[in-house]
Amino acid sequence: MIEDIIEISKSAGEIIREGFGTNFNIEFKTNESNLVTTIDKASEKLITEFIKKKYPTHGILAEEGGETKNSSEYVWVVDPLDGTTNFAHGLPIFSVSIGVQKNGKTIAGVVYDVMQNIVYSAELGSGSFAGKNKLSVSKNDKLSRSVLVTGFPYNISENPDNALEKFSALTLASRGMRRLGSAAIDFCYVARGVFDGFWEVSLHPWDMCAGKLIVEEAGGIVTDFLGNETNIFTKRMLASNRLVHNQILEILKKN
Ligand code: IPD
Ligand code: CA
Ligand code: CA
Fold first, then answer.
1. What separation in Å is there between the alpha carbon of 110 and the centre of ligand 2?
2. CATH 3.30.540.10 fits 2-134, yes or no
3. Which of 26, 66, 235, 236 has its CA 20 to 30 A from that of 203?
4. Which of 37, 41, 182 to mutate to test the pocket of ligand 1 (most atoms within 8 A of CB)?
């Protein structure tokens, strides 16, 4: 199955790459910050048609098309274009993210970094990879020497969960904070050891399904802000190299 997920992620990525910088149509979803383009929709159509043809009994949870429910124990969780704001503004940081769950547990995940042409993949119990290279999280155990990454939900103007106070506090406590604009890529950079931690106050299942497995299979950990285990419906999320996890949690709890 992993080969199929990789193949369809790359095909969707081709649609996105070809659409980048062209005159695609943009619509607003909940507000003027929350965009969807014709390219998001075209990517999702390709992926869901592939799943329906090759795995007709499987369920689908995809960002732009809602749900296809059925009795199968398998569900594909799909973000057809993660990083739509970057894409729409010409910043080449975006991805395709596809996770597959069996009975509610993620068993495989792929994040395709479209413009760098890197396939991140993981299967439960078999490690994480960028192409053929095995990934490991960083070995740094000091928050003061960590580089962290975050993202903001589209209702950030309401400052949900004191996201802005958390941002300030962690920016001051760490070596640096980044905001790349693709949650799926943020997870992969934790898995690679580029970032020591990634936190966000309000993620969706499709933002994290694949990325969470990729971090865990690279030796990292993913919890909520209280240190509890998460599933794909948990909104608050901290992914890290394990070693700085508690130091970050302490600050998230206080702010
Ligand atoms: C968004 C990106 C962003 C994150 C947002 C997501 P989208 O996904 O992953 O980095 O901060 O929370 O909604 O809308 O580009 O698929
Ligand atoms: Ca997303
Ligand atoms: Ca998306």
1. 14
2. yes
3. 26
4. 182
